[in-house]
Amino acid sequence: MKKHRLHPAIFLADHRDEERLEYAKLYLCFSDEGAYLLEDVYTPGWSAGNYGGGTVRTDLPADFYKGQTPETFAAHFGERFRDQIRHNAELAAFLEEANRETEK
């Protein structure tokens, strides 16, 4: 899969956990090497003015999108992201276009 021609990344979902004071954002990203998921997590650190968190990159198989719909793609994620992914219009358009191109 080549880089998505419209965007280098598709915002998939976010989640705020008030109990843990954590905020996470999930993206589907594209590079010349392939597609990957990027999860950015922000959380307060141990001292005033210090913030922690991190970024997790998960490489995806080249054909991760084949046969996927937003519903089936969302099923791979935890509950905190699932509903937003299921209703993500940009993801739906990407999956439809990518699957159409593989049928040719």
What does this molecule look like?
The protein has one domain. Helix content is 27%, strand content 38%. It is built from 3 helices and 4 strands. The protein has a 4-stranded antiparallel sheet, covered by helices on one side.
Describe this protein with a few key phrases:
single chain, 104 residues, alpha+beta, 4-stranded antiparallel β-sheet, 3 helices, 4 strands
Task: Strand order, main sheet: write it out.
Answer: 1-2-3-4
Q: What distance separates the N and C termini?
A: 15 Å
What is the SS-derived class? alpha+beta
Report the sheet with the most strands, covering strand number, pairing sense and barrel closure.
Answer: 4 strands, antiparallel
Low-confidence stretches: none
Short description:
The protein is of the alpha+beta class and 104 residues long. It has three helices and four strands; from the N terminus they run ββββααα. It has a four-stranded antiparallel beta sheet with strand order 1-2-3-4, covered by helices on one side.
Task: Give the topology.
Elements: E1 9-17, E2 22-31, E3 34-44, E4 51-59, H1 70-74, H2 79-86, H3 89-103
Antiparallel strand pairs: 1-2, 2-3, 3-4
